[in-house]
Amino acid sequence: MTEAQKKGERGRPRSGTNPRPDLSAPEQILDAAAHLFVERGYSATSTRAIADEVGIRQASLYYHFPRKEQILELLLMRTVEPSMIVADYLETSGSPAAVRLTALVTFDSRQLFTAPHNVGSLYLLPEVRNGPFEPFRIERSSLRALYARLISESVDGRMDAELAGPSDGAPRPSIDYLVDVVFGMVESVITIRADRSEDDATVLTTTIAESCLRVLGHDGAEIRGVVADAETLLAEMSGTLGLSAG
Amino acid sequence: MTEAQKKGERGRPRSGTNPRPDLSAPEQILDAAAHLFVERGYSATSTRAIADEVGIRQASLYYHFPRKEQILELLLMRTVEPSMIVADYLETSGSPAAVRLTALVTFDSRQLFTAPHNVGSLYLLPEVRNGPFEPFRIERSSLRALYARLISESVDGRMDAELAGPSDGAPRPSIDYLVDVVFGMVESVITIRADRSEDDATVLTTTIAESCLRVLGHDGAEIRGVVADAETLLAEMSGTLGLSAG
DNA sequence: ATTATCTATAGATCTATAGATAATGC
DNA sequence: ATTATCTATAGATCTATAGATAATGC
User: Does B169 score more than 70 pLDDT?
Assistant: First the structure.
Protein backbone atom coordinates (compact mmCIF):
# COMPACT_ATOMS: atom_id res chain seq x y z
CA MET A 1 0.00 0.00 0.00
CA THR A 2 1.37 3.40 -1.01
CA GLU A 3 1.62 6.54 1.08
CA ALA A 4 -1.36 8.09 -0.69
CA GLN A 5 -3.46 4.97 -0.15
CA LYS A 6 -2.75 5.04 3.56
CA LYS A 7 -4.02 8.60 3.76
CA GLY A 8 -6.97 7.86 1.48
CA GLU A 9 -5.82 10.50 -1.00
CA ARG A 10 -7.20 10.71 -4.52
CA GLY A 11 -5.90 12.44 -7.58
CA ARG A 12 -2.53 13.67 -8.66
CA PRO A 13 -0.22 14.52 -5.75
CA ARG A 14 0.54 18.13 -4.93
CA SER A 15 3.77 19.68 -6.01
CA GLY A 16 4.27 21.30 -2.59
CA THR A 17 3.91 19.77 0.84
CA ASN A 18 0.44 19.73 2.37
CA PRO A 19 0.60 21.89 5.53
CA ARG A 20 -2.90 20.95 6.79
CA PRO A 21 -3.53 17.32 5.84
CA ASP A 22 -6.33 17.22 8.42
CA LEU A 23 -8.52 19.47 6.26
CA SER A 24 -10.07 18.80 2.88
CA ALA A 25 -8.72 20.86 0.00
CA PRO A 26 -11.75 23.20 -0.08
CA GLU A 27 -11.42 23.81 3.66
CA GLN A 28 -7.73 24.55 3.30
CA ILE A 29 -8.57 27.04 0.58
CA LEU A 30 -11.26 28.70 2.68
CA ASP A 31 -8.91 28.96 5.63
CA ALA A 32 -6.08 30.48 3.62
CA ALA A 33 -8.47 32.84 1.85
CA ALA A 34 -10.02 33.96 5.15
CA HIS A 35 -6.59 34.70 6.53
CA LEU A 36 -5.49 36.68 3.48
CA PHE A 37 -8.79 38.49 2.82
CA VAL A 38 -8.77 39.72 6.41
CA GLU A 39 -5.12 40.68 6.41
CA ARG A 40 -4.84 42.30 2.98
CA GLY A 41 -8.38 42.68 1.68
CA TYR A 42 -10.26 40.87 -1.04
CA SER A 43 -9.00 42.65 -4.16
CA ALA A 44 -5.44 42.76 -2.88
CA THR A 45 -5.41 39.00 -2.39
CA SER A 46 -4.56 37.14 -5.58
CA THR A 47 -5.68 33.61 -6.24
CA ARG A 48 -1.96 32.87 -6.50
CA ALA A 49 -1.40 34.03 -2.91
CA ILE A 50 -4.19 31.76 -1.69
CA ALA A 51 -2.84 28.82 -3.65
CA ASP A 52 0.68 29.43 -2.36
CA GLU A 53 -0.54 29.30 1.22
CA VAL A 54 -2.39 26.05 0.53
CA GLY A 55 0.58 24.55 -1.29
CA ILE A 56 -1.07 24.04 -4.68
CA ARG A 57 -0.84 25.78 -8.04
CA GLN A 58 -2.97 28.83 -8.71
CA ALA A 59 -5.08 27.11 -11.35
CA SER A 60 -5.88 24.21 -9.04
CA LEU A 61 -8.14 26.45 -6.96
CA TYR A 62 -10.59 26.40 -9.84
CA TYR A 63 -11.20 22.72 -9.47
CA HIS A 64 -12.85 23.49 -6.11
CA PHE A 65 -14.34 26.96 -6.69
CA PRO A 66 -15.60 28.35 -9.99
CA ARG A 67 -14.71 31.96 -9.18
CA LYS A 68 -12.67 33.78 -6.56
CA GLU A 69 -15.81 35.64 -5.52
CA GLN A 70 -17.48 32.42 -4.48
CA ILE A 71 -14.82 31.77 -1.87
CA LEU A 72 -15.65 35.05 -0.18
CA GLU A 73 -19.39 34.40 -0.55
CA LEU A 74 -19.07 31.10 1.28
CA LEU A 75 -16.94 32.61 4.04
CA LEU A 76 -19.49 35.35 4.57
CA MET A 77 -22.45 33.00 4.79
CA ARG A 78 -20.60 30.74 7.22
CA THR A 79 -19.74 33.71 9.37
CA VAL A 80 -23.30 34.95 9.86
CA GLU A 81 -24.79 31.50 10.13
CA PRO A 82 -24.15 30.91 13.86
CA SER A 83 -25.67 34.28 14.75
CA MET A 84 -28.75 33.47 12.72
CA ILE A 85 -29.20 30.12 14.45
CA VAL A 86 -28.91 31.76 17.86
CA ALA A 87 -31.22 34.56 16.75
CA ASP A 88 -33.89 32.06 15.70
CA TYR A 89 -33.57 30.20 18.99
CA LEU A 90 -33.87 33.38 21.05
CA GLU A 91 -37.00 34.44 19.17
CA THR A 92 -38.79 31.44 20.67
CA SER A 93 -37.31 31.73 24.16
CA GLY A 94 -39.54 32.84 27.02
CA SER A 95 -36.90 34.93 28.80
CA PRO A 96 -37.38 38.67 29.27
CA ALA A 97 -36.38 40.74 26.25
CA ALA A 98 -33.40 42.30 28.04
CA VAL A 99 -32.04 38.83 28.82
CA ARG A 100 -32.53 37.62 25.26
CA LEU A 101 -30.90 40.75 23.90
CA THR A 102 -27.96 40.37 26.26
CA ALA A 103 -27.60 36.74 25.26
CA LEU A 104 -27.47 37.74 21.59
CA VAL A 105 -24.99 40.55 22.26
CA THR A 106 -22.81 38.23 24.30
CA PHE A 107 -22.90 35.45 21.75
CA ASP A 108 -22.16 37.72 18.79
CA SER A 109 -19.37 39.55 20.57
CA ARG A 110 -17.72 36.34 21.63
CA GLN A 111 -18.16 34.90 18.17
CA LEU A 112 -16.57 37.94 16.56
CA PHE A 113 -13.69 37.90 18.98
CA THR A 114 -12.89 34.22 18.83
CA ALA A 115 -13.71 33.17 15.27
CA PRO A 116 -10.58 32.17 13.36
CA HIS A 117 -8.76 34.95 11.50
CA ASN A 118 -11.14 37.70 12.63
CA VAL A 119 -13.46 36.79 9.79
CA GLY A 120 -15.99 39.30 11.09
CA SER A 121 -13.82 41.95 9.51
CA LEU A 122 -14.90 40.65 6.12
CA TYR A 123 -18.15 42.56 6.84
CA LEU A 124 -16.15 45.75 6.67
CA LEU A 125 -14.65 45.22 3.24
CA PRO A 126 -15.94 47.73 0.70
CA GLU A 127 -16.17 44.92 -1.84
CA VAL A 128 -18.68 43.22 0.46
CA ARG A 129 -20.65 46.30 1.53
CA ASN A 130 -21.03 47.60 -2.00
CA GLY A 131 -20.49 44.51 -4.07
CA PRO A 132 -22.80 41.76 -5.29
CA PHE A 133 -23.18 39.87 -2.00
CA GLU A 134 -26.93 40.28 -1.71
CA PRO A 135 -27.76 37.02 0.10
CA PHE A 136 -25.24 37.83 2.80
CA ARG A 137 -26.47 41.39 3.21
CA ILE A 138 -30.04 40.15 3.52
CA GLU A 139 -29.02 37.82 6.35
CA ARG A 140 -27.22 40.63 8.12
CA SER A 141 -30.13 42.96 7.85
CA SER A 142 -32.51 40.37 9.26
CA LEU A 143 -30.11 40.00 12.19
CA ARG A 144 -30.22 43.74 12.67
CA ALA A 145 -34.01 43.59 12.59
CA LEU A 146 -33.98 41.14 15.48
CA TYR A 147 -31.69 43.45 17.44
CA ALA A 148 -34.21 46.19 16.75
CA ARG A 149 -37.14 44.12 18.05
CA LEU A 150 -35.29 43.02 21.18
CA ILE A 151 -34.09 46.54 21.93
CA SER A 152 -37.55 47.91 21.36
CA GLU A 153 -38.99 45.40 23.82
CA SER A 154 -36.17 45.88 26.33
CA VAL A 155 -36.61 49.61 26.33
CA ASP A 156 -40.40 49.44 26.49
CA GLY A 157 -41.54 51.62 29.36
CA ARG A 158 -37.94 52.41 30.27
CA MET A 159 -36.13 55.57 29.16
CA ASP A 160 -39.48 57.11 28.29
CA ALA A 161 -38.14 60.28 29.79
CA GLU A 162 -35.27 60.30 27.37
CA LEU A 163 -37.12 59.17 24.27
CA ALA A 164 -40.41 61.02 24.57
CA GLY A 165 -39.35 63.72 26.99
CA PRO A 166 -37.71 66.99 26.03
CA SER A 167 -37.69 66.49 22.28
CA ASP A 168 -36.41 70.02 21.98
CA GLY A 169 -36.17 70.16 18.24
CA ALA A 170 -34.46 66.78 17.84
CA PRO A 171 -35.65 65.69 14.40
CA ARG A 172 -36.16 61.97 15.00
CA PRO A 173 -35.87 60.85 18.61
CA SER A 174 -36.64 57.21 17.93
CA ILE A 175 -35.03 54.06 19.22
CA ASP A 176 -33.54 53.48 15.76
CA TYR A 177 -30.52 55.34 17.01
CA LEU A 178 -30.16 53.08 20.01
CA VAL A 179 -30.24 50.16 17.63
CA ASP A 180 -27.45 51.81 15.64
CA VAL A 181 -25.43 52.21 18.81
CA VAL A 182 -25.96 48.71 20.17
CA PHE A 183 -25.39 47.00 16.85
CA GLY A 184 -22.36 49.23 16.39
CA MET A 185 -20.96 48.26 19.80
CA VAL A 186 -21.17 44.60 18.94
CA GLU A 187 -19.55 45.17 15.54
CA SER A 188 -16.84 47.24 17.16
CA VAL A 189 -15.44 43.98 18.52
CA ILE A 190 -14.06 43.50 15.00
CA THR A 191 -11.85 46.56 15.07
CA ILE A 192 -11.01 46.15 18.75
CA ARG A 193 -9.73 42.69 17.99
CA ALA A 194 -7.80 43.95 14.98
CA ASP A 195 -6.14 46.66 17.07
CA ARG A 196 -5.75 44.88 20.40
CA SER A 197 -5.59 41.19 19.78
CA GLU A 198 -4.20 40.57 23.24
CA ASP A 199 -7.50 41.58 24.87
CA ASP A 200 -9.29 38.95 26.92
CA ALA A 201 -12.42 37.66 25.22
CA THR A 202 -14.43 37.19 28.42
CA VAL A 203 -13.68 40.60 29.88
CA LEU A 204 -14.36 42.35 26.59
CA THR A 205 -17.57 40.44 25.93
CA THR A 206 -18.87 41.15 29.41
CA THR A 207 -17.93 44.81 29.16
CA ILE A 208 -19.81 45.07 25.87
CA ALA A 209 -22.89 43.31 27.22
CA GLU A 210 -22.97 45.54 30.30
CA SER A 211 -22.37 48.62 28.19
CA CYS A 212 -25.31 47.80 25.95
CA LEU A 213 -27.55 47.50 28.97
CA ARG A 214 -26.33 50.81 30.35
CA VAL A 215 -26.96 52.46 27.01
CA LEU A 216 -30.52 51.16 27.14
CA GLY A 217 -31.02 52.76 30.54
CA HIS A 218 -30.49 49.86 32.92
CA ASP A 219 -28.67 50.74 36.10
CA GLY A 220 -25.70 49.02 37.68
CA ALA A 221 -27.80 47.13 40.20
CA GLU A 222 -29.84 45.09 37.72
CA ILE A 223 -27.17 44.67 35.06
CA ARG A 224 -25.24 41.88 36.72
CA GLY A 225 -28.39 39.84 37.12
CA VAL A 226 -29.38 40.25 33.50
CA VAL A 227 -25.90 39.33 32.29
CA ALA A 228 -25.91 36.23 34.50
CA ASP A 229 -29.36 35.21 33.24
CA ALA A 230 -28.18 35.70 29.67
CA GLU A 231 -25.21 33.40 30.31
CA THR A 232 -27.57 30.79 31.69
CA LEU A 233 -29.84 31.14 28.67
CA LEU A 234 -26.86 30.70 26.35
CA ALA A 235 -25.75 27.62 28.23
CA GLU A 236 -29.24 26.09 27.95
CA MET A 237 -29.30 26.91 24.29
CA SER A 238 -25.88 25.41 23.83
CA GLY A 239 -27.21 22.19 25.28
CA THR A 240 -30.35 22.26 23.14
CA LEU A 241 -28.66 23.13 19.84
CA GLY A 242 -25.40 21.35 20.44
CA LEU A 243 -23.50 24.44 19.35
CA SER A 244 -20.15 25.59 20.60
CA ALA A 245 -20.37 28.89 22.43
CA GLY A 246 -17.70 30.59 20.34
CA MET B 1 -8.00 86.82 -24.34
CA THR B 2 -8.67 83.10 -24.69
CA GLU B 3 -10.97 80.90 -22.61
CA ALA B 4 -8.00 79.41 -20.72
CA GLN B 5 -6.57 82.84 -19.99
CA LYS B 6 -9.86 84.00 -18.50
CA LYS B 7 -9.81 81.03 -16.13
CA GLY B 8 -6.13 81.43 -15.39
CA GLU B 9 -5.42 77.89 -16.62
CA ARG B 10 -1.92 76.73 -17.38
CA GLY B 11 -0.67 73.78 -19.39
CA ARG B 12 -2.16 71.67 -22.10
CA PRO B 13 -5.97 71.50 -22.01
CA ARG B 14 -7.70 68.36 -20.81
CA SER B 15 -9.13 65.96 -23.33
CA GLY B 16 -12.35 65.61 -21.28
CA THR B 17 -14.46 68.32 -19.71
CA ASN B 18 -13.50 69.54 -16.26
CA PRO B 19 -16.37 68.68 -13.92
CA ARG B 20 -15.02 70.62 -10.91
CA PRO B 21 -13.26 73.72 -12.25
CA ASP B 22 -13.47 75.25 -8.76
CA LEU B 23 -10.86 72.81 -7.42
CA SER B 24 -7.20 72.48 -8.29
CA ALA B 25 -6.20 69.31 -10.09
CA PRO B 26 -4.68 67.68 -6.97
CA GLU B 27 -7.87 68.42 -5.01
CA GLN B 28 -9.99 66.94 -7.77
CA ILE B 29 -7.85 63.83 -7.68
CA LEU B 30 -8.08 63.56 -3.90
CA ASP B 31 -11.83 63.97 -4.02
CA ALA B 32 -12.32 61.34 -6.72
CA ALA B 33 -9.91 58.97 -4.99
CA ALA B 34 -11.68 59.41 -1.64
CA HIS B 35 -14.98 58.59 -3.25
CA LEU B 36 -13.68 55.49 -5.02
CA PHE B 37 -11.46 54.19 -2.20
CA VAL B 38 -14.44 54.35 0.15
CA GLU B 39 -16.87 52.81 -2.30
CA ARG B 40 -14.72 50.03 -3.76
CA GLY B 41 -11.61 49.88 -1.60
CA TYR B 42 -8.03 50.88 -2.28
CA SER B 43 -6.75 47.92 -4.26
CA ALA B 44 -9.96 47.63 -6.26
CA THR B 45 -9.67 51.25 -7.39
CA SER B 46 -7.43 51.65 -10.41
CA THR B 47 -5.60 54.84 -11.17
CA ARG B 48 -7.54 54.77 -14.43
CA ALA B 49 -10.86 54.89 -12.52
CA ILE B 50 -9.66 57.91 -10.56
CA ALA B 51 -8.46 59.66 -13.70
CA ASP B 52 -11.75 58.94 -15.48
CA GLU B 53 -13.70 60.56 -12.67
CA VAL B 54 -11.46 63.62 -12.80
CA GLY B 55 -11.61 63.79 -16.57
CA ILE B 56 -7.93 63.35 -17.32
CA ARG B 57 -5.82 60.48 -18.67
CA GLN B 58 -4.53 57.84 -16.28
CA ALA B 59 -0.89 58.85 -16.71
CA SER B 60 -1.66 62.50 -15.92
CA LEU B 61 -2.23 61.59 -12.27
CA TYR B 62 1.48 61.04 -11.94
CA TYR B 63 2.24 64.66 -12.61
CA HIS B 64 0.54 65.45 -9.28
CA PHE B 65 1.30 62.35 -7.20
CA PRO B 66 4.35 60.11 -7.49
CA ARG B 67 2.52 56.92 -6.43
CA LYS B 68 -1.07 55.83 -5.94
CA GLU B 69 -0.25 55.07 -2.32
CA GLN B 70 0.58 58.70 -1.62
CA ILE B 71 -2.94 59.76 -2.52
CA LEU B 72 -4.31 57.52 0.21
CA GLU B 73 -1.61 58.65 2.64
CA LEU B 74 -2.60 62.27 2.20
CA LEU B 75 -6.30 61.48 2.57
CA LEU B 76 -5.61 59.63 5.80
CA MET B 77 -3.53 62.40 7.33
CA ARG B 78 -6.13 65.00 6.43
CA THR B 79 -8.83 62.89 7.98
CA VAL B 80 -7.23 62.56 11.41
CA GLU B 81 -5.91 66.09 11.45
CA PRO B 82 -9.05 67.85 12.74
CA SER B 83 -9.38 65.35 15.58
CA MET B 84 -5.79 65.93 16.57
CA ILE B 85 -6.24 69.70 16.65
CA VAL B 86 -9.32 69.36 18.83
CA ALA B 87 -7.55 66.82 21.01
CA ASP B 88 -4.65 69.20 21.60
CA TYR B 89 -7.02 72.02 22.44
CA LEU B 90 -8.98 69.92 24.90
CA GLU B 91 -5.81 68.84 26.68
CA THR B 92 -5.31 72.43 27.77
CA SER B 93 -8.95 73.16 28.62
CA GLY B 94 -9.94 73.56 32.26
CA SER B 95 -13.31 71.80 31.95
CA PRO B 96 -14.04 68.63 33.91
CA ALA B 97 -12.72 65.47 32.27
CA ALA B 98 -16.21 64.15 31.51
CA VAL B 99 -17.04 67.35 29.65
CA ARG B 100 -13.79 67.29 27.68
CA LEU B 101 -14.31 63.63 26.82
CA THR B 102 -17.87 64.31 25.70
CA ALA B 103 -16.68 67.21 23.57
CA LEU B 104 -14.14 64.97 21.88
CA VAL B 105 -16.67 62.18 21.35
CA THR B 106 -19.18 64.65 19.94
CA PHE B 107 -16.67 66.30 17.66
CA ASP B 108 -15.27 63.04 16.32
CA SER B 109 -18.69 61.49 15.80
CA ARG B 110 -19.94 64.51 13.93
CA GLN B 111 -16.77 64.68 11.90
CA LEU B 112 -17.05 61.03 10.91
CA PHE B 113 -20.69 61.41 9.99
CA THR B 114 -20.42 64.58 7.98
CA ALA B 115 -17.00 64.41 6.33
CA PRO B 116 -17.28 64.09 2.55
CA HIS B 117 -17.48 60.55 1.16
CA ASN B 118 -17.38 58.86 4.57
CA VAL B 119 -13.60 59.08 4.50
CA GLY B 120 -13.48 57.70 8.04
CA SER B 121 -14.09 54.32 6.47
CA LEU B 122 -10.59 54.49 5.04
CA TYR B 123 -9.47 53.58 8.59
CA LEU B 124 -11.16 50.24 8.10
CA LEU B 125 -9.35 49.23 4.92
CA PRO B 126 -7.05 46.26 5.47
CA GLU B 127 -4.47 47.97 3.27
CA VAL B 128 -4.39 50.80 5.82
CA ARG B 129 -4.52 48.72 8.99
CA ASN B 130 -1.83 46.32 7.87
CA GLY B 131 -0.01 48.32 5.25
CA PRO B 132 2.84 50.81 5.36
CA PHE B 133 0.89 53.79 6.73
CA GLU B 134 2.91 54.18 9.91
CA PRO B 135 2.62 57.98 10.33
CA PHE B 136 -1.14 57.75 10.15
CA ARG B 137 -1.34 54.86 12.58
CA ILE B 138 0.85 56.74 15.04
CA GLU B 139 -1.52 59.72 14.94
CA ARG B 140 -4.49 57.45 15.51
CA SER B 141 -2.91 55.73 18.44
CA SER B 142 -2.05 59.03 20.09
CA LEU B 143 -5.71 60.00 19.69
CA ARG B 144 -6.67 56.76 21.36
CA ALA B 145 -4.24 57.54 24.17
CA LEU B 146 -6.04 60.82 24.82
CA TYR B 147 -9.36 58.99 24.94
CA ALA B 148 -7.76 56.68 27.48
CA ARG B 149 -6.59 59.57 29.69
CA LEU B 150 -9.92 61.36 29.54
CA ILE B 151 -11.86 58.21 30.28
CA SER B 152 -9.54 57.36 33.12
CA GLU B 153 -10.08 60.79 34.65
CA SER B 154 -13.83 60.75 34.00
CA VAL B 155 -14.22 57.42 35.66
CA ASP B 156 -11.98 58.28 38.60
CA GLY B 157 -13.87 57.53 41.78
CA ARG B 158 -16.94 56.48 39.81
CA MET B 159 -17.74 52.86 38.94
CA ASP B 160 -15.31 51.72 41.58
CA ALA B 161 -17.84 49.13 42.50
CA GLU B 162 -17.78 47.74 39.00
CA LEU B 163 -14.07 47.99 38.36
CA ALA B 164 -12.57 46.98 41.67
CA GLY B 165 -15.56 45.17 43.16
CA PRO B 166 -16.41 41.53 42.54
CA SER B 167 -13.44 40.65 40.39
CA ASP B 168 -14.62 37.05 40.52
CA GLY B 169 -11.86 35.59 38.41
CA ALA B 170 -12.06 38.23 35.68
CA PRO B 171 -8.52 38.24 34.33
CA ARG B 172 -8.04 41.98 33.71
CA PRO B 173 -10.79 44.22 35.00
CA SER B 174 -9.15 47.44 33.92
CA ILE B 175 -10.57 50.50 32.27
CA ASP B 176 -8.74 49.54 29.07
CA TYR B 177 -11.89 47.73 28.09
CA LEU B 178 -14.01 50.81 28.60
CA VAL B 179 -11.61 52.65 26.34
CA ASP B 180 -12.11 49.93 23.73
CA VAL B 181 -15.85 50.33 24.02
CA VAL B 182 -15.94 54.14 23.91
CA PHE B 183 -13.44 54.40 21.09
CA GLY B 184 -15.37 51.66 19.31
CA MET B 185 -18.67 53.51 19.72
CA VAL B 186 -17.23 56.59 18.10
CA GLU B 187 -15.74 54.57 15.25
CA SER B 188 -19.01 52.77 14.79
CA VAL B 189 -20.33 55.99 13.27
CA ILE B 190 -18.41 54.93 10.17
CA THR B 191 -20.38 51.75 9.61
CA ILE B 192 -23.63 53.30 10.79
CA ARG B 193 -23.23 55.97 8.15
CA ALA B 194 -22.35 53.41 5.51
CA ASP B 195 -25.46 51.36 6.35
CA ARG B 196 -27.93 54.11 7.18
CA SER B 197 -26.89 57.25 5.41
CA GLU B 198 -30.29 58.81 5.97
CA ASP B 199 -29.67 59.05 9.73
CA ASP B 200 -29.67 62.50 11.24
CA ALA B 201 -26.20 63.65 12.29
CA THR B 202 -27.31 65.58 15.37
CA VAL B 203 -29.50 62.84 16.79
CA LEU B 204 -26.88 60.19 16.18
CA THR B 205 -24.06 62.28 17.59
CA THR B 206 -26.04 63.10 20.71
CA THR B 207 -27.08 59.50 21.17
CA ILE B 208 -23.45 58.41 20.94
CA ALA B 209 -22.27 61.06 23.38
CA GLU B 210 -24.97 60.13 25.90
CA SER B 211 -24.28 56.44 25.42
CA CYS B 212 -20.60 56.93 26.19
CA LEU B 213 -21.46 58.68 29.41
CA ARG B 214 -23.88 55.94 30.38
CA VAL B 215 -21.22 53.33 29.68
CA LEU B 216 -18.88 55.20 32.01
CA GLY B 217 -21.45 55.03 34.79
CA HIS B 218 -23.09 58.45 34.61
CA ASP B 219 -26.82 58.46 35.22
CA GLY B 220 -29.55 60.06 33.17
CA ALA B 221 -29.85 63.09 35.44
CA GLU B 222 -26.33 64.43 34.96
CA ILE B 223 -25.87 63.39 31.34
CA ARG B 224 -27.85 66.18 29.74
CA GLY B 225 -25.83 68.76 31.63
CA VAL B 226 -22.51 67.26 30.61
CA VAL B 227 -23.57 67.06 26.97
CA ALA B 228 -24.70 70.68 27.03
CA ASP B 229 -21.42 71.80 28.64
CA ALA B 230 -19.53 69.85 26.00
CA GLU B 231 -21.42 71.66 23.25
CA THR B 232 -20.56 74.97 24.87
CA LEU B 233 -16.91 73.99 25.10
CA LEU B 234 -16.89 73.00 21.43
CA ALA B 235 -18.48 76.30 20.47
CA GLU B 236 -15.82 78.22 22.44
CA MET B 237 -13.13 76.17 20.83
CA SER B 238 -14.63 76.75 17.41
CA GLY B 239 -14.35 80.48 18.06
CA THR B 240 -10.78 80.21 19.35
CA LEU B 241 -9.47 77.93 16.61
CA GLY B 242 -11.63 79.18 13.76
CA LEU B 243 -12.51 75.61 12.85
CA SER B 244 -15.74 74.43 11.35
CA ALA B 245 -17.62 72.13 13.68
CA GLY B 246 -17.92 69.30 11.14
C1' DA C 1 -12.93 5.67 -14.89
C1' DT C 2 -12.55 9.08 -11.59
C1' DT C 3 -10.26 12.42 -9.00
C1' DA C 4 -7.26 16.18 -7.97
C1' DT C 5 -3.73 17.96 -9.26
C1' DC C 6 -0.33 19.88 -12.84
C1' DT C 7 1.58 22.96 -16.95
C1' DA C 8 0.76 26.43 -20.18
C1' DT C 9 -1.41 30.32 -21.66
C1' DA C 10 -4.96 33.76 -23.43
C1' DG C 11 -6.64 38.05 -22.63
C1' DA C 12 -7.37 41.63 -19.67
C1' DT C 13 -5.86 44.30 -16.73
C1' DC C 14 -2.76 47.64 -13.82
C1' DT C 15 1.14 50.96 -12.31
C1' DA C 16 4.53 53.86 -13.60
C1' DT C 17 7.84 55.96 -17.00
C1' DA C 18 9.34 58.37 -21.34
C1' DG C 19 8.76 61.70 -24.25
C1' DA C 20 5.55 64.75 -27.15
C1' DT C 21 2.43 68.63 -27.19
C1' DA C 22 -0.60 72.60 -26.37
C1' DA C 23 -1.54 76.01 -23.58
C1' DT C 24 0.21 80.39 -20.76
C1' DG C 25 3.97 83.58 -18.88
C1' DC C 26 7.67 86.56 -19.55
C1' DA D 1 10.45 78.68 -20.39
C1' DT D 2 7.12 76.65 -17.68
C1' DT D 3 3.14 74.08 -16.82
C1' DA D 4 -0.18 70.47 -17.19
C1' DT D 5 -1.68 67.75 -19.92
C1' DC D 6 -1.39 64.07 -23.75
C1' DT D 7 0.03 59.42 -26.29
C1' DA D 8 2.40 55.24 -26.13
C1' DT D 9 4.17 51.55 -23.86
C1' DA D 10 7.13 48.39 -20.84
C1' DG D 11 6.76 45.06 -17.59
C1' DA D 12 4.29 42.99 -14.14
C1' DT D 13 0.62 41.33 -12.79
C1' DC D 14 -4.11 38.74 -12.43
C1' DT D 15 -8.27 35.54 -13.40
C1' DA D 16 -9.89 31.83 -15.61
C1' DT D 17 -9.71 28.10 -19.21
C1' DA D 18 -7.76 24.05 -21.84
C1' DG D 19 -5.81 20.06 -21.72
C1' DA D 20 -2.16 16.78 -19.73
C1' DT D 21 -0.90 13.79 -15.95
C1' DA D 22 -0.38 10.96 -11.75
C1' DA D 23 -2.57 9.06 -8.35
C1' DT D 24 -6.63 5.74 -6.62
C1' DG D 25 -10.98 2.86 -7.34
C1' DC D 26 -13.31 -0.74 -9.46
Answer: no
